Amino acid sequence: MAVTKKRDVRRSVQQAGWITLDGGFAARQCTVLDVSATGAKIVVDDPTSVTPRVRLAFSRDARTGRHCEVVWRRGKTLGVRFVS
């Protein structure tokens, strides 16, 4: 019997966001393409500089946002999963 894993509903947002690299202080701008309860799809200018763990926020304030881990990369587009 095959188990089907159902994805959470994604909302297309096409909105500016900010990522802060793990252990870093400088926020870098990104574009959030879509978001769900468990993660988001983002586009960054320099994907090679993005660490495996980041904080994603919709404001430049580094104290806001959600901790994430990068789960896939396709060029400048990254998939992140929200973690605690």
What does this structure look like?
The protein is mostly beta strands and 84 residues long. The protein has one domain: Beta Barrel (Thrombin, subunit H). It is 0% helix and 54% strand. The chain contains no helices and 6 strands. It has strands spanning 11-21, 27-35, 39-43, 53-57, 66-74, 77-82. The protein has a 6-stranded antiparallel beta barrel with strand order 1-2-3-6-5-4. It is globular and about 35 Å long.
What's the short story on this structure?
This protein has strands spanning 11-21, 27-35, 39-43, 53-57, 66-74, 77-82. It has 84 residues and is an all-beta fold. 21% of the residues are buried.
CATH architecture: Beta Barrel
What overall form do the CA principal axes indicate? globular
Structural class: mainly beta
Task: List the total number of helices.
Answer: 0
Average residue-wise pLDDT: 89
Helix content: under 10%
Keywords:
globular; Thrombin, subunit H; 6 strands; 84 residues; mainly beta; six-stranded antiparallel beta barrel
Element layout with pairings:
Blueprint lengths: L10 E11 L5 E9 L3 E5 L9 E5 L8 E9 L2 E6 L2
Antiparallel strand pairs: 1-2, 1-4, 2-3, 3-6, 4-5, 5-6
